[in-house]
């Protein structure tokens, strides 16, 4: 009996204990920092169970179904993780301590990431707040002035791509833009990326950071990281803005009376009778006629959600811009899906997929040039009818300028572009010290253009007396041209990273990998697979602009296969540091490319870098003044494979009578020569830098000196006639040097609990020149044509690339004519008298920024400027035959009553290219002024955060140049720095709201 009672009691105690142990409960709590500030967004997860929560705006969390004895882990970026055991208590207060190690900035490098403190190379980072502060179609346009050594030249045209030069212009004929890497996929630009999707942009500038990209690294590399999902509750963000835009600066043109006086005086100087009445009926402002108040709008939605195993980020954005040129519109829809999957404990799969669909209605930018030159004495249309006035719309024959409004009216084009990108990555933690990554990226782009030319309408608008019966019956009434272009790129990376530490002091990191790549049409030499078809007499409605709707005959078409390139690469990088004090980096990459001939397909690239973190030494360890001090240096060799390809031109039509009957035989020849040694350009770079921080890093900055030498720059050579060839051949023939200094400084501090501020800036000083010509047959190339038979530029040893080569105007004679410096004393003014006057690229440039936060208010101001460069006023230099002039030219012209030693008398002859039309390109502009306010919201609202703001973009500029804009994109021998058919700079005023749900 006693035994039965004992067993029954034991049974009761065991099972009642089990019942107690398995009883679940709900708990809640708060997460704060040591200063009692709540930490919203902290993750709270029960270890070993799918029970988790994310703290709200006040740091609160709750967990349901936990058991006594469970342990939950609290993590938050920048703070040490903390584990808490569940007891009988229902509420918990968790205080997290800051983790200084986590707070140190981590930057993305090629095939990995590193603490900025441990870098031996020069890398600049721009964060998402700086990118999204200035709405623009291209993220690069938004960060102008934010990174030292990075010169960004934008265009005011909707959807345009800015020019980006990193540490100067290193080549005249090779590709000049940097390489972009978006989540591992290599690409030529990031115009398809929604700026709101970017977390940060890392700009690699020196050999130590760039050598891992081998023959892609010579022009710099820009790495773009997009946003990722995170574990926790669903988060929804909405950003919406709308603004208006107008020209930043307008040039005052002469009115009708001034034009008539000036043109009559020019006619009299030519011995002709005056022909313009001073009292004109019309006074047309052509710039006003072709422009409008444009608009800019942006709407973005992003969703973030996830669990411990799956984390996802999705976004959709729509950007729309109406340019100031009438009818010039651009819009872009972007979609992105970034997802991470923890397949098993040590293996993770991630995918980043994006699509960008853009739709553009382009208009000819030459309308700006024609509006500048067209006379104000004629109207846009004739008063008695609807016909356009002006040349090609007038029988007056005043000048040879087209009617700019008519040019826009009859220019009908539509362009659509679809760009798809995807990156798929598997990351495996093979062991605690070995990580393996396999990544496949693919990019493809589809472009389509439709152009409709109303031939009959153009004919009728050319003369008000014309009728349909006057039009040639066999001529097409209209012409439709459809163009299609597509290209692609895929790349497969496989690399392993090994981390090992010896004696808690010696830290090693080794990265080994291989890359295989194939691309079609991405190197700027050829534009992928191309097809164009033309048909006549299609319906006028744009819905029917398809080739099958035109006449069956004739069927005109052309196409090309494009340029296919295959690459194979092997790379290795080793990082070593001793107690984060002494740093060493070595990088090697071997690249092979199919586009070069045998014997020149493979190249080796390398770099070595070293650093000394002086602030880790005992004599500075406890310094209250010096928070951080590092000296670093690097040397390496980089490549630029984007050079013109070896393509021969076969000339036909050389017919010759041959044989006894002297019958005509078709003949042809090759009159060019291929250099079999043509390969990539090679750049050597030396860099030494000093990084510092004072007073708890309130003042922080960097100073870099660099010297970049492109030792086999591609240049044209012209062989003697004895070789049997005419024209020029491209070959490695020169050395281009960029030498400079970069300075970055930033001061940030708090005043009390409610006010914080930051003041920063950067300056770059760069000296560019063609240091040496290494081929005796070098052909000193000229360029910079302004469309009237005059050229303005020349490439020559000792001068910067893109240097202006002009006659020197020394004054004005007693008849109001230019006096040119006769350099060779020949008595004749010609090319032998031309001089060099500087280049279009600036010697110095930089940016500045000021930000402040007071309670719920935030303020930001940033600007950019450059000096030491020149701009050629191509519009002004293009005048001849009764075109209009600027009011300033009229007011200051030479006359017998008001002689001038600097301004000429009115003339109609084609002006020679001279420094009279060359002006300084120095300017300082406020890029952005933003004032924002975060609304105080009730806790019960579904809106977690709401901020409204006002932004003024490019509101003010101080410039030396008298034209529309001193920033003009283009190459060193094309239109870079020449204002001719260029889009004027614009200013915008924007209202916006950001919501978090």
Automatic annotation (TrEMBL):
InterPro entries: Beta-barrel_TonB_sf, CarboxyPept-like_regulatory, Plug_dom, Plug_dom_sf, TonB-dep_OMP_SusC/RagA, TonB-dep_OMP_SusC/RagA_CS, TonB-dep_rcpt-like. This is TonB-dependent receptor. It comes from Christiangramia aestuarii. It is found in: Cell outer membrane. The lineage of its organism: Bacteria, Pseudomonadati, Bacteroidota, Flavobacteriia, Flavobacteriales. It is a multi-pass membrane protein. Residues 1-21 form the signal peptide. Its main location: membrane. Belongs to the TonB-dependent receptor family. Coiled coil: none annotated. Residues 116-221 form the TonB-dependent receptor plug domain. One of its GO terms (cellular component) is cell outer membrane.
């Amino acid at each position: 009996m006693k035994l039965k009672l004992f067993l029954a009691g034991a049974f009761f105690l065991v099972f009642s204990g089990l019942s107690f142990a398995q009883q679940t409960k709900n708990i809640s709590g708060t997460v704060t920092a040591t200063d009692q500030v709540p930490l919203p967004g902290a993750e709270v997860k029960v270890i070993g169970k799918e029970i988790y929560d994310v703290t709200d705006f006040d740091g609160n969390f709750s967990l349901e179904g936990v058991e006594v004895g469970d342990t939950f882990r609290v993590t938050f970026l920048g703070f040490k993780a903390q584990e808490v055991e569940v007891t009988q208590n229902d509420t918990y207060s968790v205080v997290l301590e800051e983790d200084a190690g986590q707070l140190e900035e981590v930057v993305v490098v090629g095939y990995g990431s590193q603490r900025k403190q441990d870098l031996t190379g020069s890398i600049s980072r721009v964060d998402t707040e700086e990118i999204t502060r200035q709405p623009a179609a291209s993220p690069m346009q938004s960060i102008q002035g934010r990174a030292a050594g990075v010169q960004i030249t934008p265009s005011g045209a909707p959807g345009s791509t800015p020019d980006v030069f990193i540490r100067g212009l290193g080549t005249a004929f090779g590709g000049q833009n940097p390489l972009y890497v978006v989540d591992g996929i290599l690409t030529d630009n990031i115009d398809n990326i929604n700026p709101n999707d970017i977390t940060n942009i890392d700009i690699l500038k020196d050999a130590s950071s760039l050598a891992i990209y081998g023959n892609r690294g010579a022009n710099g590399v820009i790495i773009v990281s997009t946003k990722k999902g995170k574990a926790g509750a669903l988060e929804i963000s909405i950003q919406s803005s709308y603004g208006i835009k107008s020209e930043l600066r307008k040039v005052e043109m002469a009115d009708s009376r001034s034009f008539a006086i000036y043109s009559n005086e020019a006619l009299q100087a030519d011995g002709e009778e005056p022909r313009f009445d001073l009292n004109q009926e019309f006074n047309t402002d052509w710039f006003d006629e072709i422009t409008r108040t444009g608009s800019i709008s942006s709407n973005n939605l992003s969703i973030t959600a996830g669990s411990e195993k799956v984390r996802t980020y999705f976004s959709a954005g729509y950007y729309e811009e109406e340019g100031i040129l009438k009818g010039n519109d651009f819009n872009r829809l972007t979609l992105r899906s970034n997802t991470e999957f923890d397949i098993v404990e040590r293996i993770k799969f991630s995918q980043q997929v994006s699509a960008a669909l853009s739709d553009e209605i382009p208009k000819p930018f030459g309308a700006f040039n024609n509006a500048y030159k067209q006379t104000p004495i004629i109207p846009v249309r004739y008063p008695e009818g609807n016909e356009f006035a002006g040349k090609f719309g007038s029988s007056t024959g005043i000048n040879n300028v087209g009617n700019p409004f008519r040019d826009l009216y009859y220019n009908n084009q539509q362009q659509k572009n679809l760009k798809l990108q995807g990156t798929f990555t598997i990351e495996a933690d093979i062991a605690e010290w070995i990580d393996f990554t396999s990544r496949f990226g693919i990019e493809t782009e589809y472009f389509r253009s439709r152009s409709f030319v109303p031939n009959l309408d153009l004919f009728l608008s050319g003369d008000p007396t014309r009728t349909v019966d006057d039009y040639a019956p066999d001529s097409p009434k209209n012409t439709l041209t459809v163009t299609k272009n597509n290209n692609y790129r895929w790349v497969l990376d496989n690399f392993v990273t090994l981390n090992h530490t010896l004696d808690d002091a010696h830290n090693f990191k080794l990265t080994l990998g291989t890359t295989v790549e194939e691309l079609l049409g991405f190197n700027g030499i050829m534009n992928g697979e191309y097809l164009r078809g033309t048909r006549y007499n299609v319906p006028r409605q744009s819905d029917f602009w398809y080739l099958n709707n035109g006449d069956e005959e004739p069927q005109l078409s052309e196409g090309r296969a494009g340029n296919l390139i295959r690459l194979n690469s092997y790379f290795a990088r080793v990082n070593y540091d001793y107690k984060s004090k002494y740093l060493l980096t070595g990088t090697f990459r071997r690249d092979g490319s199919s586009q070069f001939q045998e014997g020149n397909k493979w190249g080796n690239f390398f770099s070595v870098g070293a650093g000394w973190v002086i602030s880790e030494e005992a004599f500075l360890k406890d310094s209250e003044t010096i928070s951080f001090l590092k000296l670093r240096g690097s040397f390496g060799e980089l490549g630029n494979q984007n050079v013109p390809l070896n393509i021969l031109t076969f000339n036909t039509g050389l017919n010759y009578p041959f044989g006894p009957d002297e019958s005509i035989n078709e003949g042809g020849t090759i009159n060019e020569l291929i250099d079999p040694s043509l390969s990539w350009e090679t750049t050597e770079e030396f860099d030494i830098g000093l990084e510092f921080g004072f007073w708890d890093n309130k003042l922080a900055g960097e100073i870099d000196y660099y010297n970049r030498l492109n030792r086999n720059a591609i240049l044209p050579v012209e062989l003697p006639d004895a070789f049997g060839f005419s024209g020029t051949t491209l070959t490695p023939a020169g050395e281009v040097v960029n030498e400079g200094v970069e300075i970055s400084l930033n001061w940030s501090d708090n005043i009390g609990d409610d006010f914080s501020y930051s003041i920063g800036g950067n300056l770059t000083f760069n000296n560019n020149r063609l240091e040496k010509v290494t081929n005796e047959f070098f052909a000193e190339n000229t360029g910079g044509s302004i469309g009237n038979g005059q050229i303005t530029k020349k490439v020559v040893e000792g001068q910067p690339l893109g240097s202006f080569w002009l006659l020197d105007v020394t004054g004005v004679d007693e008849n109001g004519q230019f006096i040119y410096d006769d350099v060779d004393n020949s008595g004749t003014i010609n090319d032998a008298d031309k001089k060099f006057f500087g280049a279009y690229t600036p010697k110095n440039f930089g940016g500045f920024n000021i930000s402040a936060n007071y309670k719920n208010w935030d303020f930001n101001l940033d600007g950019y400027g450059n000096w030491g460069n020149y701009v050629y006023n191509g519009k002004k230099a293009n005048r001849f035959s009764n075109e209009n002039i600027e009011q300033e030219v009229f007011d200051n012209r030479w006359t017998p009553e008001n002689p001038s030693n600097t301004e000429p008398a009115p003339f109609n002859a084609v002006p020679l290219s001279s420094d009279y039309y060359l002006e300084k390109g120095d300017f300082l502009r406020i890029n952005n002024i933003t004032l924002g306010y975060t609304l105080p919201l009730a806790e019960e609202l579904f809106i977690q955060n709401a901020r409204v703001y006002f932004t003024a973009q490019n509101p003010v500029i101080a410039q030396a140049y008298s034209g529309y804009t001193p920033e003009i994109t283009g190459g060193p021998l094309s239109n870079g720095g020449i204002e001719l058919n260029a889009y004027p700079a614009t200013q915008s005023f924007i209202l916006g709201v950001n919501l978090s749900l």
